[in-house]
Amino acid sequence: MLLLDQKTGPDGSRSASSADSGIHAGDPLAASLHAQLGERPPEEVLQIVKPESGLRCIIAIDSTARGAALGGCRLLPYGSDQEALRDALRLARAMSMKNALADLPFGGGQAVICRPAGDFDRSELFSAFGRTVASVGGCYVATADAGTTALDMLAVQRQTTYVSAMPRHRAGEHSSMTAFGVFIAIEEGLQRMRRRLRGATVAVQGLGAAGMDLCERLQDSGARLLVADVDPARAREAAARFDARIVEPDRILAEPCDVLAPCALGDVLDAASVATVRAAIVCGTAANQLADPQAGDALHARGVLYLPDYLVNVGGTISVARAYLGQVSAAEVVREVALIGQRVNELLERSGSSAPVRAADDWAREKLATAIGHDPAFAGAGVPASR
Ligand code: NAD
Question: Which atom of ligand 1 sits closest to the CA of residue 91?
Fold first, then answer.
C-alpha cells in the first residue's frame, strides 16, 4: 500500500509527492485501504492540502499497468476524509477495470477535491489542483467528473498537459458518448432476452447530462419512459420532452419495467434496494452502482440481468481518451463506443450461468494481469507524442 514513494511518470519525470502530502501507513485512512479494496491495494494514494488555495484533495492511482492512470476529478462536499478516500479508491479501481475492458492504453485513477465551505476562488482552486497533477509527473491524467466543468479543466490545463480538457461549447460530447454506450448495451441486453426496445419500459433514475441524453435516445427508439430526479425541474423537463411519466425518486428503483437505468449516484443497489427491483435488466451510466459485490449476486439470484457499470459506461472515457491522445475522428469514437455491444455479448457468453458482474471482474483482472506492466514504453502509451 503505499503512498509516499516518489514515482516515475510515463514521461520519465519524478513525482514531487512528499511525506507531507502522502497518507502514512499507520494512519487511520491508510488502515482502511485494505478493508475497502480487498485483494489488491492501489499503487499510490496522495492526500494534498494547500491551505492558501483551499485545496484539499486525494489522488488515487489504482493502476498504471496499462498506461498513465486516466480518471475523473470530482469536486463534492465530502463529509469526511474517509468518505472522500472511499470515493477516490472505488472510482480509481473502477477506472482501471473500465479502461482495461475497453482496451484503452490507460491505467485507472481518480481525484476527489473536497468542496471548500462558503465562497471560494474556483480558478485558484483548480490552478492549485493543476500544479498538483503536474507534480505527479504524468502518472495521473485528469478529466472532468461530478461537480467539475470544462472550464475547471481548462484552468488545470494552464498548469499541466496531463488533463483532457475541451472548450465549454463541446463539454456535452463526452456525456453523450456515455449515454450512447449505455443505450447500445441496453439494446444488446434486450436482444439477448428476445425483447425489443420499441415498446419496452425503461425507468431512468437521474436526469443530468448523461441521463437526459439517454432518455432522448430511448424515446427516439420507441421506448416508454419513467423518470425520476431529486430536482423536480429536471423531472418536469424530461416529462415534457420525452412524454415520460414522473416517478418519485424514492420509488423509481422499485418500478415494474423492462430496464432500470441508474444514472444518478453510486451505491444505489444494496441488499435492501435489490430486493425491491422489478426490472429484467439493470443498465445505467452511474458509476459504482453496486454498494458491494453481494448486491450483484443478489440481482443475479433474482433473475435480473445486471450489466456492470464499468463495462457499459465507458463511452465518455473513450471520447476523453481519444481527445487527449488526439488520435481519431468523432466518427471513429462513435464506432469504438459501439463496440460496447460486442463486449456485452462476450460477457454474457463468458458468464454462462454465473453472475455477469463476477465474470466481468475476472475479465478485467485478466486484462490487467496480462498488461505489459511497468515497461515505460507501454506505460508511455497514455501520453501523446507531442507532450
Ligand atoms: P449530473 O450531475 O449531470 O446528473 C446527475 C443527476 O442525478 C442530477 O440531475 C441530480 O439531480 C440527479 N440525482 C441526484 N441524486 C438523485 C437521486 N437520489 N434520485 C434521482 N436523481 C438524483 O451527472 P451525469 O454526468 O449525468 O452522470 C450521472 C452518473 O453517471 C454519475 O454517477 C456519473 O459518475 C456517471 N457517469 C457519467 C459519465 C458522463 O460522461 N457524464 C461517464 C461515466 C459515468
Answer: 34
